[in-house]
Specification:
It is built from seven helices and eight strands; from the N terminus they run αβααββββαβαβαβα. It is α/β, with parallel strands linked by helices. The chain has a four-stranded mixed beta sheet, with helices on both faces. A two-stranded antiparallel ribbon has the order 3-4. A two-stranded parallel ribbon has the order 7-8. α1 crosses α2.
Length: 224
């Protein structure tokens, strides 16, 4: 998220949905939230407050968050939190767990030496990375082996389109969450997030060999 009059509430709602939908266990779940310094404090406070209000437990009721896939996945989240905190990060929301149910967590002041900076949590523990400006934001966004889905929140759509062009991802949403899919849209990523596309005409094209067949006049003119 960058400061060009971005809609703070919209960014918070989009980040929360992208990060915690299905316990963050979606290929396009939001993992790293990169925020420019000018807006970081207000954004983190608002997102942490929202995360703290998300109920976790039996998903058959009114709880927003249910269980991660298994105990091993839950233990990995514990390890990511411990590693980040031991290196100077701050847990500003959630992180507690009961078996495989983990409360929506948010870790602020994440740096490259922390595991959660580069490792996919695949769970409801997400990182905040503070940057000084949009150039650093792009550098950090591209400093990963993955490249499936990204999102940019800004009040300047033209600038947002320019930022989207610089992000190395197969998908980029401007003022929308990373979790989004439509059957008619080419879906796929870059780098370690795979190759090829599925969905719409592009999906058909991936399974198609194009050929050129002609029917011509055998007595046509040739220059020699």
């Amino acid at each position: 998220m960058q400061q060009s009059h971005a809609d703070l509430d919209g960014a918070v709602n989009g980040a929360a949905f992208g990060a915690y939908m299905n316990m963050g266990q979606i290929c396009m779940s939001t993992e790293r939230i990169i925020v420019t310094e000018g807006i970081a404090d207000r954004f983190v406070d608002a997102l942490a407050s929202k995360a703290a209000l998300l109920p976790a437990g039996d998903p058959s009721g009114t709880n927003v968050l249910g269980s991660v896939i298994n105990e091993k996945a839950a233990e990995k989240l514990d390890d990511l939190i411990k590693d980040a905190l031991s290196k100077g990060a701050k847990l500003v929301a959630g992180g507690e767990r009961d078996g495989t149910v983990v409360k929506a967590g948010l870790i602020d002041y994440v740096t490259p030496d922390m595991r959660i900076y580069s490792e996919e949590s695949f769970g409801p523990i997400k990182s905040i990375i503070r940057v000084k400006d949009e150039d650093e934001a792009i550098r950090i966004a591209n400093d990963t082996e993955y490249g499936l889905a990204a999102a940019v929140y800004t009040g300047d759509i033209k600038k947002g389109l320019g930022l989207a062009e610089k992000i190395q991802s197969g998908i980029c949403h401007i003022n929308g969450p990373t979790v989004c899919d439509e059957p008619q849209i080419p879906f796929g990523g870059l780098k370690a997030s795979g190759y090829g596309r599925f969905g719409g005409d592009a999906g058909i094209a991936e399974f198609t060999d194009l050929r050129w067949v002609t029917v011509e006049d055998p007595n046509q003119y040739y220059p020699f």
